[in-house]
Amino acid sequence: MANLPGRGKVIVGHYGLAAAVKAREPMVPLWLLMLATVWLDVIFIPFLAAGIEWIEPVPHAAHYGGLIIHADYTHSLVGAALLSIALAVPVARAWGRRGGIVVGLVALSHWMLDLVVHRNDLPLLPGNVGDLPKLGFALWAKPDMAIGLEILIFAAGIYAYWQAASKVALAAGVSRYLAVRSAFKAFFFGALIIILDLTGLAG
Hints:
By secondary structure, this protein is mainly alpha-helical. The chain has one domain (11-198). 62% of the residues lie in helices and 4% in strands. The chain is globular.
């Protein structure tokens, strides 16, 4: 199942959130916010490779969102919180307490966004201790709505980022060209991911 991780992930939605947060927190690097939004997936990769966590395709489902993700450690609510703290602590040392809190919350937002789209495969406790009911609002079962939500989050984030960058450029008395160029690069990158995901070329 190693070819499945790119199938149906909400990558662009996560990156859109990073762009929106960057607009409000200019002192935190955009690359760090983007890393934070996918931090749980970054840690998920070695767990997947080791067979501790795995991915199961949903029979007859659309390519986009056609997955059940058995990530009972990295994508449990408590596990996500602990991983977010693990990222926030070194960030706080480098970018200050506020930077650490922001990055930690952005990392935890990954679980919140996944809760909306995932089928009921998100446990509360690591390893699904206690065999509690798993959560997920299953928006992936309605691909058109899930895609629309993802594009909306991404577009709103890019717009907020462009507005903030433009204000900085005007305050510095320089052209807004750099702000437009940065926003366009982010938009192009996100659009490319969406195309690859929807066509199945991403995996």
